[in-house]
Specification:
The chain starts with a helix and ends with a strand. Strands 7-5-3-2-1-15-16 form a 7-stranded mixed beta sheet, with no helix packed on it. A 7-stranded mixed beta sheet has the order 8-9-10-11-12-13-14. It has a two-stranded parallel sheet with strand order 4-6. It has 2 domains: about 30 residues; about 280 residues, Metallo-beta-lactamase, Chain A. The chain is built from 10 helices and 16 strands. With about 300 residues, it is of the alpha/beta class.
Length: about 300
């Protein structure tokens, strides 16, 4: 009888371990292909109340965890800005996050470049929220993508009577107390990543550089134009790929903090050399695959980092 009980105990233990491994494997595969995220398992729509802890600050920059994609929400003294909207598959995360932060109107939306991991959820943003200004890069006819997500974006802009603006590098404008400086794209490229709008957002004595997926070619053009790239926070380009964040560019930006929007996937991102470089340079680095949604909140003088996990 005891021997039979021990066999059953071992069988249940083995079955439990096997099911746990199988479940973990399925989640990992689902995350890699953007079909599921840990957030959708734990929080239903991927938004936890932790973000409200940033409400005590005049400005907060939310790097929403949307896997290997970008979606950044900026909240500053009653003004709301969105930079990119992740994949279509993760729009429930972005949309619910904005709604939970009380967003009804977006004063500015930037679609950095027309890849699905940046604009896939953008048509839903335009349909669900009032949008005051919309920025996107202007592309040569031969480089305009024929992807369905890009076509849906153009249709959503038309249906919502929104005229997109193509910002000029070297130009600047204000949204409330935030100052926006546009640094790229300075040319038109066959590689759409290099067509990314690069913007620096300054608030009092703090600044944030948002690079989209701009690669070294675009970085070099920004350096050649001697733009004031110096920023407190760097959104690491191209999800931490080795195609971005050159030594010269990083030296010019000289950030104290860096954020990488990424998930653990088949592309081995972020690149180990980039992670090591950031560490060696003493830059405090956060990753959405490890930390979940990352919020950098500030009163304009100091920055507080709030991590989801």
């Amino acid at each position: 009888m005891i021997e039979k009980f021990n066999k059953q105990k071992k069988w249940f233990l083995f079955s439990g371990v096997f099911l746990f491994i199988l479940f973990s494997l399925l989640i990992t595969i689902g995350e890699s292909f953007g079909l599921i995220s840990w957030k959708s398992v734990y929080n239903g729509v991927g938004v936890s109340d932790f973000s409200q802890s940033a409400d005590d600050y005049d400005m907060s920059v939310h790097f929403i965890d949307v896997g290997k994609a970008d979606s950044i929400y900026i909240k500053c003294l009653g003004k709301n800005v969105l930079i990119d909207a992740g994949e279509k598959a993760t729009y429930d995360v972005v949309g619910e996050y904005l709604k939970k932060n009380g967003v009804k109107k977006l004063d500015l939306v930037i679609a950095t470049h027309p890849h699905s991991d940046h604009i896939g959820g953008m048509p839903d943003v335009l349909n669900d929220f009032s949008v005051e200004r919309f920025l996107m890069p202007e592309l040569k006819a031969e480089y305009v993508p024929t992807s369905k997500c890009y076509e849906k974006l153009l249709l959503a802009l038309k249906n919502n009577n929104i005229t997109p603006e193509n910002p000029e590098p070297g130009s600047s404008f204000e949204i409330g107390e935030m100052e926006f400086d546009i640094f790229a794209p300075n040319s038109q490229y066959e590689e759409l990543n290099n067509d990314s709008i690069v913007a620096k957002v300054s608030f009092r004595n703090q600044s944030f550089l948002f690079t989209g997926d701009a690669q070294i070619e675009s970085e070099n053009e920004m350096l050649a134009r001697n733009f004031n790239l110096s920023s407190t926070v760097l959104k690491v380009g191209h999800h931490g790929s080795k195609t971005s964040t050159s030594d010269k560019f990083l030296k010019k930006v000289n950030p104290k903090y860096a954020v990488i929007s990424v998930n653990s996937d088949m592309y081995n991102l972020p690149n180990k050399k980039i992670v090591k470089k950031l560490k060696n340079w003493g830059i405090e680095t956060y990753r959405t695959d490890l930390n979940g949604t990352v919020i950098l909140a500030t009163n304009g003088e100091n920055i507080t980092v709030i991590k989801e996990k």
